[in-house]
Amino acid sequence: MSGLLSKFGAPTVGADWDAGKSLKLAQRVEKTMARALNPDPKQLDPKTLLVALANRDGAPPNVQSVHHGILKSLANSGFDRTRPQIGICVEFRTPEGKERLLEHNRRFTQGQPLLPAIDSEKALYGTLAGTHLNLALRILQAGGSSPACDVHSVIGEGSSGKTLREIVEHGHRWWILPEDVEHEDQVEVSQWRNMDQNENQAHHEIEILRNIQQVCQANAKALKTPGPSKSLTVGDIVAKAARRSPAKISDRAMASIARYYLKSVDEKCGHLASEVMEYHSANVNPRDLVVPANFFHTLATEGGFQGAPLTRHYLLLSAYCKEKSRASAGAPDVANFIETSSLSNLAKKVDAVKHLENLLSEARAQYLPILEEKLSRTLALQELAGLADLWVRCLFAKPFKAGTGGAVTTGKFCSEKAKDLAGAWGSRVNERFPDLQFTKRANLQVTTPKKGDDLDLEEKVCLKGLETESLEVGYNLQPGDSVTVVNRFSWTIPLPGKPDFRRDITVGTCGQVLGFADQAGRQVLVAFDLLLPGHSEASRVAQAAWPRNLRKQTEGEHEVPGEPGAPEAAAPAEEESEPLPEKFQFLHTKVPEELRTEVIVEEDWPKLLDTAAAGQSLWHLRGKVAAISAAVAESLEPLVTDDLVLAHRRGAKGSLKTEVWTMRRFAARELVIPVLSTELKDMYWTKSLHEKVGLPAAGEGRHPEGKSLALDGRLKNVVASAGTLDAAEHRGHLCWAITRTSEADQANMIAEPVIAEVSVTLKLPGSKRRKAIQCDWPLRTFPLFLFL
């Protein structure tokens, strides 16, 4: 970094930023900062500084970062004037430039109680770096309120309080750029300073969305200009957006968010992206919560959401919820309020999606005009998002926030519940804005639960049910009662030569309760007359049974001859049994009578032979990989045991680690280690202890679930069982621990792909037509470790 750029407060570039892009960005910023109007930083009154249009590429500032980040930190830790870097701003002298600055700030400030009011007479500068700090200073200067702390107690009597009081009164120090600096250059200054992760929020999904939106809008303008037009692909947009940002962002994340935005653009609803940004800036702290890329991917790719832009929009807003979020070490929590599997299931219910889309469209058309009479467009949309959240929670059977759902229960979403939830939401709007008379003007019916005063406290109650509290619900059986089976269950009845023989006790079987089977009386001892293999007559069998599977016979009810399980029906009677299909008649004619028993034909057994089924395909695929792995191992020269030693070395924490040592210097590519394992995993369990197996993306040989296969290098926990090497059992992990490096001269081993094209000929006994079968296994690549 040059001395000139260091003068303006060069950021500390973290691991999340591309070093090459950051360097080129810094070189361009250096030329821009050379145009600064002041040779030394100038102290500016916080009131004169608003948010520049180019700050964070035009995205509104994050309200939660100002309050729960900066103000809360000032209240807890005090102010250190050496910590915040000198701010960078743009001076707006022309009336047109000042009006654009004011209009940009009114858009997200108007009606927002957590942001300071705008002094249009004093406003002169737009901030590019230090924006959130200046907003905090303006809140302190105006004596506003904060949900994170007591603003009035932030400026204390200590030394840090005196310093902060001076900064609040006279302002922070700033570098000032002229108004004629190009907008794109101003954006790059903001990006450059926001790389410092010590002061600024991390690069998150909303900034990616804003970046993609800017790229699409710029290209849309370019297409309107005369000249040859060129259509763009998703890849083109992702590539252009990646070049605009120095942050390291995965292609999948960028593509998923791009597809989400382009889906709305295709349905003439591109403005919804700006609503997402405004909602996020007002309600979500990016340091606390992020929505993963696969959520955007599911919304964009599921066909059931086609033509439902409002449904996708409000599902995303509802996802910004801390409930059920997954913690991530050193990073914001990952939102998991609505699982992607639940989204996929909803997309399959086309009628439910269409119903919700119609409700949301009608709500925006009916309620927004009323709300905008007292609120700004931004705040009106945020109020409406509260109603959409209630509908989404009811649809997914998620619990309502305290005091928001009224008397409605979640689940089984329908028009009546949607109407009741709208009434509950409208009553809250009435409480916040009583002058609006919202429920009356919107024609909403408010349904509230009964209060305690309305309850009938004189109602008689019966506590007799507590006498059998330890028994099953509905239990009323006593010894000697005659019972009938109402739910089929199975008993294990040991027979000579068949200790694990199981017999189904079918519905309709009649028996008698002999007593209780346990001290708590939860099971009963019941006897049935059953026909068992090897017996010509029914045998009386008594075992424990659950009362829920039995029904007490009423007085006057008798066993009907021929009922299953009754003694009269125990003897085999072929004329009374249900006839089998003709192709199974041999079971009655060729099986000896003493061996005949109940026959259940499994009609779905051909599914077990369906090799196209997911489970079967995966089993065959693993078999192919194992066979090729063995073929690779057998084709290599055998290793000499004197060249390698298996050792157990105790680490600093006292645990033993199993290692393989080489006892001599091997020539390059002399030592070849194939990955050979009986374990194939769908997941990469341990870093550097697996190797990916290349599979075809489609067609024969592909993974049935669209995943990758990996050879697990951990093998088994037992290296050598007792009695193989010596009397002791040797435990540990026999594997090659690989540390990857990008420096070729530092590597001593490489993973070389081996292309496998295997053709197997099988000779089967039988007819000539089955004498030989040839199988081709299209497995693309296979890993092989070569020591250099």
Quick recap:
With 788 residues, the chain is an alpha+beta fold. Helices cover 34% and strands 16% of the residues.
Give an account of the 3D structure.
With 788 residues, the chain is an alpha+beta fold. Helix content is 34%, strand content 16%. The protein contains 22 helices and 25 strands. The strands form 8 sheets. A 5-stranded mixed beta sheet has the order 1-5-3-4-2, with helices on both faces. Strands 14-13-12-9-15 form a 5-stranded antiparallel beta sheet, with no helix packed on it. A 3-stranded mixed beta sheet has the order 6-8-7, with no helix packed on it. Strand 16 (644-650) and strand 17 (656-662) form a beta hairpin. Helix 2 (19-33) crosses helix 8 (183-193), helix 3 packs across helix 5 and helix 11 runs parallel beside helix 13. It is globular. The model is unreliable at 197-202, 450-455, 464-474, 559-577 and 683-687 (pLDDT under 50).
Q: How would you describe this structure in keywords?
A:
single chain; 788 residues; alpha+beta; five-stranded mixed sheet; five-stranded antiparallel sheet; 25 strands; 34% helix; 16% strand; globular
Mean pLDDT: 77
State the distance separating the first and last CA atoms.
Answer: 38 Å
Structural class: alpha+beta
Based on DSSP secondary structure assignment, what is the total number of beta strands? 25
Q: Percentage of helical residues?
A: 25-40%
Note poorly predicted spans. 197-202, 450-455, 464-474, 559-577, 683-687
Number of helices: 22
Rg calc: 37 Å
Oligomer: single chain
Shape: globular
Report strand %.
15-25%
The largest sheet, given as strand count, sense and whether it forms a barrel, is: 5 strands, mixed
